[in-house]
Amino acid sequence: MRIAIAGLLHESHSFAPFPADLAAFEKPGGFPPLARGAAMLEAIAGTRVPAAGARELAESEGHTVVPLAWGIAMPSAPVTRDAFETIAGWIVEDAAAAMPLDGLYLDLHGAMMVEGAPDGEGELLARLRARLGPALPIAASLDLHANVTRAMVEHADVLTAYRTYPHVDMKETGARAMRLLLDRIAHGRPWARRHRPIDFLVPLSAQCTLAHPMQELYAAIPVVAEQAGAADLSLCLGFPYCDFEGCGPAVTAYAATETAAEAAAARLHDMVVARRAEMVQRLWTPEAAVRHAKACAALGGPPIVLADTQDNPGGGGHGDTTGLLRALVEGGAAGAVVGVLNDAATAAAAHAAGEGAAIEAALGGRSDGAPFRARFVVQRLGDGRFTCTGPMTRGNRADLGPCALLETGGVHVLVASRKMQAYDQAMFRHLGIEPATVPIIALKSSVHFRADFQPIAREILIVAAPGPVVADPSALPFRNLRPGLALSP
Known about the structure:
The protein is an alpha/beta fold. It has 14 helices and 21 strands. It has helices at 22-26, 38-44, 50-60, 81-98, 120-132, 150-155, 170-187, 214-228, 258-274, 286-297, 323-330, 344-353, 426-429, 450-453, and strands at 2-9, 19-20, 35-36, 64-72, 77-79, 103-108, 138-142, 158-161, 192-197, 230-236, 250-255, 304-308, 337-342, 358-363, 372-382, 385-387, 397-399, 403-408, 411-416, 440-443, 459-463. The strands form 5 sheets. It has an 8-stranded mixed beta sheet. Strands 3-4-1-6-7-8 form a 6-stranded mixed beta sheet. The protein has a 3-stranded antiparallel beta sheet with strand order 9-11-10, with helices on one face. The longest helix has 18 residues, at 81-98. 58% of the residues are buried.
């Protein structure tokens, strides 16, 4: 069979400072760059992106893979109209040119907003249906943070989502989506489907599947699906920074009968609602977190990890706020390391000065106008190119542009020219830092860091330093959410 593969992924934050233009897809940090046609297969080869898993499964069973286009940009404000029209246009036109096809697999996020089109995935799927017709089987893999809309469910034959956060099952989810697509083709007709929205937002840090109650809820998904006889059952917890009516968690179920689909969706929906009171999180102020971390570090042992959750580049932050860095320096946290701070100008100044030199810099703060001004010593320089080694993105080739390890007041900070969430130890090792030997390590991340850093951490503190990825979504100035949606559990 001829199976087309394409991908367009972005997690959009309505209140973030900078949009995702075409350049953001061309150089997306720790993920493969935008590619079209055969170049797409080369770009995703050896990585853990969902499309790589889908491709491998299809080819292992003797099917012909038809590459269309694939692109991802780091989370930010919504995608520009030009970027969307360019990449979506490639996917739709190339799919039409490749017809006849037996099926289409899409690697999607599920929380992409576009200028003038808040449901980006629904828009793409609607265009594909209009161009390719209602009969072509279409399957898509989604991020766990997807805001699943009625349009997405209507225009795809099946949607299946990650079951882990940190997302260590991206490639496996792509393979599962491809298996479902092949099963749908063999089935000969669409499955019955159910879409059950959940009427409250879940804070990002509370969505972690390594902690209660998500750990138990996600473990129950395959059990509930099997008992109900569902072909697939997914829980998407939503991305609570998208200001449109489709924002929020939802359950999707697919089965041979309406009864089975309804039974699976209803049971999982009710299980989530029953655990809503447990979806809470403890937050530390930067000053309290530094005091606690210093006291613990004085006892020796593994690192204390501080998660700078509100400037998480994986949630729409620009990766350049300095509130936690300032608290570490002013609190005398000698030996601490901060990473990764996005500031191309300071990285360039460090490279111009050279290793061992001292520079005066206004570090970071482009997104909020609050840089950290200090005298820094350039301790090490790097080109920002490395291969990820952690469980989530092992094999992905990163390119953060010129990087520098700077020191001020005994605190070290890794500065990069492009933003990337701090979810892989390799980003520190390429500048000579071995994370396991650091007393305190501050990471610009909300949850993904746990996949690679939790095993080496003595303790983890979630810190609410200033930043756009606010830990409590109820503090955001929403205007377009659907009536009846609670802003917190």
